[in-house]
Amino acid sequence: MEEKEQKKYLKEKEKLVTKVGYLQRVLKEYKVPVMIVFEGVHASGKGRLSNELLLALDSRYTKFYATHAPTETERRKPFLWQYFVNSPSHQEIYIYYRSWYSLYIAMKNNIIKDSLYDGSKLLLQEIRNFEKTLRNDGTELIKFYVDIEEDKQKEHIRRMYDNPRTMWKAQEYDRDNDEDYKREMEKIVLEDQNSWHRIKYETSFVSVNEVLETIVNRLEKRLKKEKKRAEEEPEKRDGFFNGKYPDILKKYEGNHDLSKEDYKDRLDRLQKEMRDIQYTLYERKIPLILVFEGWDAAGKGGNIKRIIQQLDPTGYEISTTAAPTDIELRHHYLWRFWKQVPKTGHISIYDRSWYGRVMVERVEGFASNKDVERAYEEINDFETSLTNFGAIVLKFFIHISKEEQLKRFEARQADENKVWKITDEDWRNREKWDLYEEAINDMLDKTNIKKAPWLVINGNNKRYARITVLETVITACTERFLDK
């Protein structure tokens, strides 16, 4: 390329860089997360394009993530774990040098071996769900597929090998996967052309400007949408309650008595079985996820305590879900739960969980109606990712009557050793019993998927509930062991 033409491209680039910086600053104020993906064969110019973009952006609000051969930790987590936990906050831009597509292709073609998944179609659907979830949350996802002629690619590789300082770049983990990778990526891009920007890498001057111009166009369009949205009426947060719902809880009312003697005998035996279950889960590298939801004072903590009574503490973790922190609020609401996903062979127990979005956040108006309505599908997709990975997911809702709750509240209030368990918020929640009842029934109806079922437990009798939960966990795990 002639010097005159190079100067022309450099002048255009300077203008584009200024625009990109401006748009990043403005969209940060609108709390728009941006994800920019670069895919392409080995030595196609992805690194150069990524670096030019990094130079154009404010490093305080920009991060770079390079997909790599999974580490030992990443191998023991679900397929999309490393990407969800490394997704931007609502004020950041993340650049991905290769992405979930590269990992998917490497796994499909056995470049990276993983026996935990039954087929690649599952992973492709997970990718679609992942991107949909992020877009619905407001993420601007910009995907580039960098194409390069074979002669040009060979020239890039030769340069890398000739320089001892860049030789390592010619040894990427996927360099031997180029042919299969290109075939798969061409298919993916062709099937979803509207979501990809194809870049023909010829010279860095032309390709860098093309990438910058594409990003400027996308971000300018997004800014117009955000300005328009700011002028519209705020989204409704009334929880869309109408009193019409499937009364699932009604089937689990009443009392189930269990004597103290019978309870004590069965509890000791079941807890020893639970310890054996933990060892077998570890040996077979099966993660177990136990979710506990229920009315205030229903006995969630008591059930959890009986499950872990004789377990090895190095093999389980209890997550008590409270109000999200400032950092968590700047991410998709499932981000903090993806971070807590157990590795293979370990147990994660949740004392309240991601279902807060469709219960307390719906009732209290902390989330908009649209946020709640789409959460049912997002939660189902999240749990499907966990079960695709081989996790056993059991979700318990401990149900007690309104009368039983009142008895327990009053008993806690009168006991100096338990008075700390009862708060003003508990009493306020009780006043909204009918709203919570509708929200809970909707939740049980819309998120009861086959591989991650809801198990409603009558908790009016604490002893009965604890034994039933333990028996259910042991049975589900034993069935999995026999199935395998």
Describe it for me?
The protein is of the alpha/beta class and 484 residues long. The chain has two domains: 3-231, P-loop containing nucleotide triphosphate hydrolases (Rossmann fold); 249-483, Rossmann fold. It is 52% helix and 13% strand. The strands form two sheets. It has a five-stranded parallel beta sheet, sandwiched between helices. Strands 7-8-6-9-10 form a five-stranded parallel beta sheet, sandwiched between helices. Helix 6 (120-136) runs antiparallel to helix 15 (369-388). The longest helix has 28 residues, at 204-231. It is globular. The model has no long low-confidence stretch (mean pLDDT 93). Residues 5-225, 258-477 form the Polyphosphate kinase-2-related domain. Residues 209-236 form a coiled coil. InterPro entries: P-loop_NTPase, PPK2-related. It comes from Proteiniclasticum ruminis. One of its GO terms (molecular function) is transferase activity.
List the helices and strands and how they pair.
Elements: H1 3-29, E1 34-40, H2 46-56, E2 62-66, H3 72-75, H4 81-84, E3 93-97, H5 100-108, H6 120-136, E4 140-148, H7 150-162, H8 178-191, E5 196-201, H9 204-231, H10 260-283, E6 288-294, H11 300-308, E7 316-320, H12 326-329, H13 335-338, E8 347-351, H14 360-364, H15 369-388, E9 392-399, H16 402-414, H17 424-431, H18 433-446, E10 454-458, H19 462-483
Parallel strand pairs: 1-3, 1-4, 2-3, 4-5, 6-8, 6-9, 7-8, 9-10
Helix pairs in contact: 1-9, 2-9, 5-6, 5-8, 6-15, 10-19, 11-19
InterPro entries: P-loop_NTPase, PPK2-related
GO molecular function, one term: transferase activity
Protein name: Polyphosphate:AMP phosphotransferase
